[in-house]
């Protein structure tokens, strides 16, 4: 895989770090344990966003039937597989070939057909995706503005984009690095706090790429309930965007 293109957004060190975690990505108690805890809350947010954007039967099992979804920074498929089960024709991209191999093997075991590629998003020729997702990824790329522009270029005119990322606050440093990477189960070296992006900064990048943010919400941790959606964006947040109307 060639990742050193003129507009490459992939950071090779980041790709190597996450590729080293590929073998136990699907182990809920392994190096990706935090993502397993985050995933149910992210999926609830995504399902609500889908139902708002494409009104219909909110009880439907496959609301993405007939739609194409692109998950960028897919890892071993924690989000791509649920998107496929929701009916989408899914393409998953990741910088680490090791993750793509793990994703392909797991999807095969689940009898799911997902197009996994170890390809930078800016090198993809495909466009016109109804749903573009990239969860906990932008804080690891080499050029956030170029990355957002590449995501926007893949989105269909009436499509929906959903992103999540840590905020750059003292609380996020404490929660995700000081605690998270010592006793919280996050592998050491996963995060660089200086690369975290605030909601205002990410909104500006999306606007520069011709998109508008329609919904933004925080992702908080409650000792009794685990991760929850919240008005507090101090640690992490999710947002939904679409092409400007």
Largest beta-sheet characterization: 8 strands, mixed
Side by side, the strands of the main sheet go 3-2-1-4-5-8-6-7
Instruction: Spell out the CATH superfamily.
Output: Vaccinia Virus protein VP39
Report how far the terminal alpha carbons are from each other. 37 Å
Determine the fraction of residues in helical runs and give it as a percent range: 25-40%
CATH topology: Rossmann fold
Low-confidence stretches: 1-7
If you average the pLDDT, what whole number results? 88
- Counting DSSP E segments of at least 2 residues, the number of strands comes to 8
Shape field: globular
Count of helical regions:
7
What fraction of the residues are assigned to beta strands by DSSP? Answer: 15-25%
Class by alpha and beta content? alpha/beta
| CATH C-level label | Alpha Beta
Order of helices and strands: HHEHEHEEHEHHEEE
Number of domains: 1
- Alpha carbon gyration radius: 17 Å
CATH 2nd-level architecture? 3-Layer(aba) Sandwich
Catalytic activity: a 3-demethylubiquinol + S-adenosyl-L-methionine = a ubiquinol + S-adenosyl-L-homocysteine + H(+); a 3-(all-trans-polyprenyl)benzene-1,2-diol + S-adenosyl-L-methionine = a 2-methoxy-6-(all-trans-polyprenyl)phenol + S-adenosyl-L-homocysteine + H(+)
Pathway: Cofactor biosynthesis; ubiquinone biosynthesis
Protein name: Ubiquinone biosynthesis O-methyltransferase
Organism: Sphingobium rhizovicinum
Set down the secondary structure blueprint.
Blueprint: H1 12-19, H2 33-53, E1 68-72, H3 80-85, E2 89-93, H4 97-109, E3 115-117, E4 129-135, H5 144-154, E5 155-166, H6 170-179, H7 199-208, E6 211-222, E7 226-230, E8 236-243
Parallel strand pairs: 1-2, 1-4, 2-3, 4-5
Antiparallel strand pairs: 5-8, 6-7, 6-8
InterPro entries: Fumarate_lyase_CS, SAM-dependent_MTases_sf, UbiG_MeTrfase
Enzyme class: transferase
GO molecular function, one term: 3-demethylubiquinol 3-O-methyltransferase activity
